[in-house]
């Protein structure tokens, strides 16, 4: 082989090698982009449940997000409930209130109605972290306090100090839940087993109060 | 002169390679992420007959893919203590659910305080029919003497429990168990614990 053609072949081999290296780098980059996109999405999303519910943070009570299918006598033609919640169960009244624990723990309080009701807590970007049903109601009310780890420590310290002064308290303790992040939302679901229970289910959802109690 | 030209060509080739790597990396990475997010939850699928459930999606242990899918769909799944949702896209023989056909959903439902069966179109909207009833609850349902439940899904009226199908297109069924020990994800269901989805007949074909 003449030296000139050998030089051309060598240079070709070098360039193909560089192309293979670039492709390998591209695949590594692709894996990193993929992982970053999946992990970042819950924090960047502007249309997720938290973003849509954020305006309800200032509300004192849960805001109805999705109504149950109404019906019964004279309401045969009631339209199907419309909501942004995908795959909404038309037997449920769904309400929510968003929270930000920056100013203090959140107290969620629901009157114990006759219908099946659940309250679930969802952290922004991290999904559901706690849920209770109406079976947990004590003395006719379903109450829970949502706090960050630091706030809970402060509450416990305050209680311990109060006990030293006045002796053990005999009141029912609150049900306390530690929130994984400061921001999130409370979701209330009430079941209207019959369409005629729809108004009651909606009223029970809107009767759930969410109040920030500064320490 | 020739050397300078060759060096310029090499530099241009290197720039081209860097651009190629960056574009391919970003394209493949974002494209694959989008592709995964379009589908069902990739991990933690549990199956009982034709019914699929993802119990871990409503728990603090949900995986990053499930969280990203939820962020995109704005869905709020049932949390672990609230209940569990079972999705069916096919009948018991694996044929996609078709709104032109007649189906019978029959058998037992797992222990729960209440359950609902709801039909959606493939995009997740409630089915729209003249009957204006896209689902049934456990309280509304009529039962046989032995407590068994049979629900007919058909475009035309059926005796007993009947949910009207729109008569065209596909559909999906969601069975939600509220306050059920199943959602605790201790163990899993036998196939017999879930109702069967049997296709009875389709318009334009003899009874199958």
UniProtKB/TrEMBL annotation, chain A:
By what name is this protein known? DUF1254 domain-containing protein
Q: Does the keyword Membrane apply?
A: yes
* Species of origin: Salinarimonas ramus
Residue intervals passing through the bilayer = 21-45
Which keywords appear in this protein's UniProt record, sorted alphabetically?
Answer: Membrane, Transmembrane, Transmembrane helix
TrEMBL record, chain B:
Its keywords, alphabetically, are: Membrane, Transmembrane, Transmembrane helix
The keyword Membrane belongs to this UniProt entry's keyword annotation:
yes
A Pfam entry, by short name: DUF1214
Record-annotated membrane-spanning stretches: 12-37
Keyword Hydrolase in the entry? The reply is no
InterPro entries named among the record's database cross-references:
DUF1214, DUF1214_C_sf, UCP009471
Gene3D superfamilies listed in its UniProt record: Domain of unknown function DUF1214, C-terminal domain
Q: Where would I find the DUF1214 domain in this sequence?
A: 82-180
Q: What is this protein called?
A: Membrane protein
